[in-house]
Structure formats: C-alpha cells, structure tokens
Amino acid sequence: MVVLVIIAVFLLGFVAIVARMYKKAVQGEALVRTGMGDTKVSFSGIIVVPVLHKLEVMDIKLKTIIIQRAGSEGLVCKDNLRADVKVNFFVRVNKTPQDVINVAQSIGAHRASDPAALENLFDAKFSEALKTVGKHFDFIELYNSREQFKQQILAIIGTDLNGYVLDDCAIDYLEQTPLTALNQDNILDAEGIKKIIALTSEQKIQANSIEREKQKTIKKQDVEAQETILELDKQLIENQEKQKREVANIRARENAESAKVQQEEMLKSEKARIATEEEVGIAQQNRDRQILVAERNKERTDAVETERVAQAKALEVNERERIVALAQIEKEKALEEEKKNIQTIIRERITVEKATVIEEEKIKDTRAQALAERDKLVAITAARQETEAATVGMVGAADMERQAAEFRAKQALIDAEAEKASAEFKAQAIRILAEAEASKAAAVGLAEAQVMQAKATAHQKEGEADAMVMQAKADARQKQGEVEANVLQLTAAAEAQGIQVKAGAQAEADEKIGMVAARVNREKGIADADIIQARADADQKKGLAEAAVSEQKYAVEARGIEAKADAMRKLDGVGKDHEEFKLRLDKDKSIELAQIAIQKDIAFAQAEVIGEALKAAKIDIVGGETMFFDQIIGSITKGKMVDRTVHNSEVLSTVQNTFFGEDGNGGGDFKANLRRFIDQFGLSTDDMKNLSVSALLLKLMSQANDDATRSTIKQLTGTAKALGMGDVMVRGLM
What we know:
flat, alpha+beta, 16 helices, Tetrahydropterin Synthase, Chain A, five-stranded antiparallel sheet
C-alpha cells in the first residue's frame, strides 16, 4: 500500500513537473528552444527543461514595411521624369521550422519581430527593386499600369528573403515630382524638366486656344441674341405706340361726347338747384323768424323765473345767515357762560383751599403752643397735671376742628342748595324761552333750526346745572373728608401724647377722644342725611322739570314738523335745500356740543385727580385752566418714567447702587460717592476736563484694579453711548 502511495505521489509529481515545463504557443508566434538536443521549433507547444533548455518566442505575424521616395530621391522613370512614390510591403516569417531557425540565427528571435529592424534590413533591397522596375516604365505608363508595376516589383524582389516571405505590396502614393524639387544640374532632371515644360506648354497653348474659341463663340452668340432682342423690342414699341394712338382717338371722341352730355345735365341740375335754394331760403327765413319769436318768449319767461328764484334764494340766504348768526351768538354766549362758571368754580375752590390751609396752619400753631406750654408745665408740675393740661389742649383743638368742619360742611351745603336753586331757575327760564321761540318758529314754518337750537340750549343748560350741583356735592364731600382727616390726625396726636406721659392719662384721653369721635360721626351722619335729602329733592325737581320740558319739546316738535310739511309742500326745491342746510347745521351743532361736554368731563376729571393728589399741599397756582394740570401731570409722568427706567435697567441700577447707595463711603451723598470713585484712580480736575466722556471712561477702565469696577465702567460706557454723550467734553458737564 505504501508502495502504491509512493508511486502515485511520484506519478503526480512527474505529471506536475511535466505540466510545469510544457510551454504552449499562441497564434502568430513560434517557440524556439535551444540547448540540449539541438535547436527545436514548435508552433503549438514544447517541453522546456530549466537549466538544460532556453526558450525564445518569435513573432511570425504579417508586418508592413513602408518605402517612400520623394523629391530629389524620387523614382526616375524611363522618360527621365521623376515620380514621388510610396509603396507598402507586407512581410512575414515563413511558417516552417527551418525558416524560423534561419531567421533566429541571422537576426535573432526578438529583432525578427521589431518593425524598425525589419525596415533597416529590407530598405535598401526594396528601394533598389523600385528603381530597377521604375526605369522600365515611362511616367504615364507607370501611372496607368500600376498593377504591372507592382507585379514586376514582386518578381524582382522574389518571395524568399532568408526565411521571410513577401506576401504582397501596395502602391499607396504615386505622383510627379514638382519642378521646384528637381536639380537643373542633373542630366536626368534637366531632361525631365525639358519634357515637363514642353508637355505643359503645349497643353497650356491648346487649353488657351480652346478657351479663346469658347469666348468667341459665346460672344458671337451674345451679339446675335442681342440683335434679335432689339429687333423684337422695336416691333413691340411700334405696335404699342400704334395701339396708344388708336386708344387716344377713341378716348377723345368719347370724352367729347361725355362732356356734351355733362354740360346738358349740369344745366338741368343748376336750374333745379336754383329753384330749390329759393324754396329753402324762404323756408329758412320763416324758421328763423319763428325761432326768434320763441327765443324772445323764452327769455321773458326765463327772466321772470330767474327773478323769482333769485328773490327766493336771497330770502333763503338772509334767513340762513340770520339763523346761523343767532346760533353762533347763542353758542358763544353758552361758551362764555361755561367758561365763566368754570373760572368761578376754580376761584371758589382756590379760596376754600386757601382758607383750609390757613386754618390748618393756625391749628398747627395752636398745637405747637400747647406742646411748648405742656413741656413747661412738665418741668414745673407733676405728671398728672401735665397729662391733664395736654388732654385739655388736645380736646379743645379737636372740638375747634369739629366746629370748623361743621361750619364748612354747612357752608358747602348752603352753596350747593343755592347753586341748585339757581340752576333750576336758569333751566326754567331757558325752557320758557325755548317754548316762546319754538312757538314763533312753528307759526313761521321755515325756522326749525331755531327750535333745534333752543332745544339744544335747554339741554345744555340743564346739563350745566346738573354739573354744578354734582360739583358742589363733590366739594362738600371732599371738605368733609378733609375735616375727618384733620380730626383723626389730632386724635392720633393726643393719643400718642397721652401714651408718652402716663398710662392713666391715656384712658382719660381715649374716653374724651371717643366722645369727640362720636360727636363727629353723629354730625357727619346728620350732614350726610341732609345732603342725601337735598340730592333727592334736587333729583325729584330735575325729573319734574325734564318731564315738563320733554312734554313741551314733543309738542313743539310736532307743531314744527307740521309747519315744515306745509312749507315743503309750498316750496319743493327751496324746501329741499333748506332741509339739507338744517341737517348740516344740526351736525355741526352736535359736534360742538360733544366737544364742550368732553372738555367739561376732562376738566372735572382733572379737578378730581388734583384734589386727591394735592389735598395737603401748599401750592401757588399759576397759569390757565388747563396749563397747571398739564404741568403737574407732565412732571409726575416724567418722574415715574425715570423711576421705571432705573428699576428695569440693570446698567442704571448698577449706577444707582454705585453713586446713590447707602453702602458707599459717602453714604447716600452723590458728590461724596462720585469723588470717592474718581479718587481711587488718582485723577485730578485738570486731567479730566480736557477729555471726552468716552475717553475718560476708557482711561478709568485701564486703571481699574478689580473686575467689579471695570464692569461698572463698561456699563457706564454703554449708557453714555446710548444717551449720545460719548463725544461730549467733561468740562461741559462740570
């Protein structure tokens, strides 16, 4: 078994070695083996033993060798003319072992496949064959007998070329050598030049003769054709002129006949036209006469109508102007009355406030004297005597204040009642005046605008009366509140004083203060009841007055509408214009009244705001009716805006804490904090005054020692840029 395995392994190894050493050939190649066993050639495959054999591969495919002769090296023909020729020779190694061995032994296997080596090998032989064959043919024959020329080349070269085989050749290019490439000193070239010139000259002469003959023939044909054309044109013109003469004669005869007929017809037409113009003139004169009569009648009618309309318009314009003037006068009167009332209210309010302030100052003086007296008694007498004196003083002051408050409340109530009665009388007078004017307008029928004006005036006066009553009530409530505030203030002061002096006196003072408060509350309740009763009476009277006015207003409106309808039926066009005018007047009046009401509401609201905000302030009022309020509100708004800006801005908050905070060395003093902030950088006034704000802050930032200071200066720089103060000089701010 082992022997079989060894034999199998040996056989497999032998087969592998043989397969390894066996070399195969491809198509177009020949394998040449040299070495042991002489030279062997194979076209399919052969065994090559390393060390013993050497294998070479020879390319036996067909190769192309190009032989080109041109110019002075051109092919010389039998007639001594040179020809530029290019011939392709197709050569290959003969596929026989002996020829392959011959080629391998003569030039080597590798050079046998090199095209350049083959061209150098066969160039001289092929060129000599071309020259030999070319000398047997004239140039024209060479050109015409290309196949014969090729066969003779193959015959001279032969097919056996020391192992190579010439399969075929092809004449790729064949042309006469140019004269410029020929050498005149060469005998053969000179002969060729002579023949070329002779042949070309003869051909040129013949070509020129043919060209000239062609030109003469063409010219002759052109002349004959031109003569024929002219003769035909002459005949055509003669025929055309003859025809034109005949046509002109015919047209003249026809025109003469037509003119004769036209003259006859024109005569008839002219006669008819003259007759027609006479009739038309007569009719035109009759029509103009009738038109003139109609125009004059129309002018008379238009003049009458125009005069009537002008009179009506003049009456209407006068009436409108009168109504507008009355309305304007009434409006101005109402405005002046309203302004006067507002000024009166303002003056009364100022007078009351001055009296209140004077009374408060007197109370403060009395309180100060009592305190001084009490301090003096404390030093002299015992604690009880001091307490009793202080209590008696405080109770007396409270009683005086209560009496003053009662007096002011009664005075305000009396003023309100007087103003209410005055307003009722004014409303009654206005209502009576409106009834009279409305009755007059209803009788006339064309003055409804006055009725509307009277009604508006009545409404306005009623509103003014209501406003004055409400203002008086508001003043009374305000003054009563001030009295309560003063009483409470005095009570609190007495209470505090009693606590400081003695605990026993505190009980007695509390008892007296309670009694005073009870009396004040009782008086306040009585005053409130009186005010409520007065308000109810005023509302009742106002309702009765409004009902009466409404009843009379509706009656007057009904009569006015009836009169208006009658007037509209009488004057249709004029009534329409009058209605439009009244509508515009009502609209303007409504707008004016609305503006007055708005201004009054604004003034009332301003008074309430000022009263609440400046109850205890001592202010000298300077300015008009709205200037003082606008200035106060503007100042408050600006202050609030500044506070809100500082509160919402981190930068301004940092600046506030740095220069206005209590934690600085200067406390809350801005100058001390600013001086402390500048002194830490060692800068003097002279160093700063010549710098801008941005430059100063930049210098301070460069000298800062800690991050907090640099952050503060950086925030100040941003604030200065935002406010537009970066380029402002410091000396302008000092």
